[in-house]
Structures are given as C-alpha cells and as structure tokens.
Amino acid sequence: MASVTLEGVSKQFGPTRAVDDVSLTVADGEFFALLGPSGCGKTTLLRLVAGFEMPDDGTVKLATEVVGQPGWGRPPEYRRIGMVFQSYALWPHMSVAQNVAFALRVRRVPTAERERRVKAALAMVGLEAVAKRRPHELSGGQRQRVALARCLAMQPTVVLLDEPLANLDVHLREAMQQEFARFHREIGATFIYVTHDQAEAMALADRVAVMDEGRVEQAAAPRALYREPATEMVARFVGRGMVVPVEVIGREGPRMIVDLWGERIAVRGEAGSGERRNLCLRAEDLALTSHTTGTIRGHVVAATYQGAATLLTIQPDAAGAPQLRVEHASAPPAVGAAVTVLVRDGWIIPGERMQ
Question: 263-286 burial, b if ≥16 CB within 10 A, otherwise e?
Fold first, then answer.
C-alpha cells in the first residue's frame, strides 16, 4: 500500500487556478474524502494524483517516490492506482468479465492469473452470476460494482473514486456506501474519495478535506469538522452551520462567555476578552424555552416538517440579526408566534474576527 503526499501543489487552466498551493498527506491505508462545492478543485486534485494532469507547482508523491512535478509526471499506468469514475466508463460491447479483465489484458497479465483475478474481483463485489452479461443488462448499482471490480482486479495501492455514487438513487447510494467501506477494510488500500455530498463523506471517511476555490479550508476527522470548524466556509458548508457575530466577555470554567445580541451565552472555543469573533451555531444546539435569561427572543417565520422533528426558522428581535434554524421535536408553534430560544452550545471559529 502507499501514502499520498501533495506538497505546495497548484494547477491552473487559463485564468482559473483550479488547485491553489495545496499541501496534504493521506496516510497509508486511510479512507480520505475530498469534499466541497462544484468547481472547488477536488476532481482536479484527484486527477493530479492519478497522473492525468501535471502540477504547475509543487510535487505529488506516492509513498516516498515523486510521481508528479512541473513538466513531468509518471504515466497513470505506472502508478499502481485504480480509479472509479462517476460515469462507470464501461465498454458496452464487452461482458462484465471482459470489462474487468480489460486493463489486465493491456498490461499482458498471463491468462491464468488474469482469470484468477477477475474471478476474485467479481466475487468480492458479488457479481459472479452476471459475469457474462453486458453493461446494458445491469442495474446502476451493478454497473458501479463492475467498475469497482475492474479497479480491484488491478490490485492497486491507491484507489481513487470520483463522485462514484452520483448517478444512483438514494437507497442504492446507502447500500454502496456500506460496500465501499467493506472493500476498504478488506483490501487495505489507500482510498481517496471525491464527493460534494457531505453525508457521504462524513459516513465513510477517516478524515475529510473541505475545499473551496482551489484551497483546502480544513482537513480533519468528520466529528471535528462538524463540531469545530476552522473557518466560516467550513462552518456554513458542513451541516449548514449558522455564523453569528459575538463579543467575548471572558472564561467561566471550561466555557467561554460571549455577548450575543445583548445576552450572555456559554460556548466552546478559545478567544481573548473583548475580542469580536464569529460563532458557529447548529440547529440541534438551539431549543425553544420558557427561560428569560441567556436566551434569544424572536418569532417564527417558517416551519418545515422533517419527520422526527420540525425545522423552525426564527427571526430574532435584535436589529440586523440573521435568521436562526431550530430543530423542534414536539408540536411546533404557529408561524408568527413569539418564541424564546435557548443557545445550548456554540463554537468560536478560530482566528476569525466578526464579519
């Protein structure tokens, strides 16, 4: 297996800097996700690792070997990397087994070894019974498994997955997430998984890198990304956090006390007394209450039923305050009703001054 290291990597297409000075290390055997909005550079970064693009600046390493640098790149076929595409990229005129065997044939793997690997790969993805079928005779989930089997047959040290579940319906996506997690455990290869679906990234990855405008905003374990976002972009993108301005009053025990629209609120994080900072709030950390101190007063402007809870949109009474979202499990108040919101938790975004 192999680690993947990017050191100061940049890639430009015309006036657009698709990847901008990215430094990352993906550990040997890690399941790593690249997450971000469309156009943030995550697929370009994956192509740089695969060898389909060469960096304009910086280096790409597999283990300790440099495989990409300005003006030179080791060809993809010599990197021992497997890639699973969003479009599956299956040959329509070939059977399932022939698709899986194709790259092995190109590499002139002996027939007996090729047949053994194809059979083992199809067994791993549960497709032995459809080995003779053509791609058009398969479901979307089965075609995705064929693409994965073709990758696994190559015995790669690194597996790259570019939005592999984007074309599947929600039920198939959930099933395939479990399959990808199982494959990762069984083969032990390093996985780098590109997605714009944060639920997918958070469910699968050991660590997630959030990208925006070609840069990595934060790389951390899913729980840390959600509970302790490093930037306003991460706070808003991951879990739709709400970012509000506060003034830091000081510390009381393990918590910081901040002034939020004239109310004293206890939150997590580090900051100096008197600093004006940005605070990340989550909908589940807010609750309707009858308390009158340390709370935010406002009125309900919308209520969206979501099954286990109703998502309330609250407009605080404080002048210029942005709307808040509150998860409410019991019968919701009517739109227009006056409410009081208890802030049970919040996170001071590190190093970011008030917006």
Answer: bebbbebebeeeeebbbbbbbebb
Residue type, 317: D
Q: Give residue 222's identity as a one-letter amino acid code.
A: P
- Using DSSP's 3-state secondary structure scheme, residue 227 falls into helix
> What whole-number distance in Å separates Cα of residue 243 and Cα of residue 327?
17
Tokens of 264: 């004293």
> Which whole number is the average pLDDT over 34-53?
95
pTM value is: 0.89
Nearest to 43 by CA among 237, 207, 195, 184: 195
pLDDT at 355 > cutoff 60: no
SS3 state at 225: helix
Give dist(CA 295, CA 341) in Å, integer. Answer: 5
CA angle 141, 145, 150 (to 5 degrees): 150
Q: Tell me the C-alpha distance between 128 and 97, whole Å.
A: 9
User: What are the structural domains, with CATH classification, of the chain?
Assistant: 4-234 (3.40.50.300), 240-353 (2.40.50.140)
What is the spatial distance between Cα 15 and Cα 231, in angstroms, rounded to a whole number? Answer: 26
Query: Predicted confidence band at 1 (pLDDT cuts at 50, 70, 90)?
Result: low
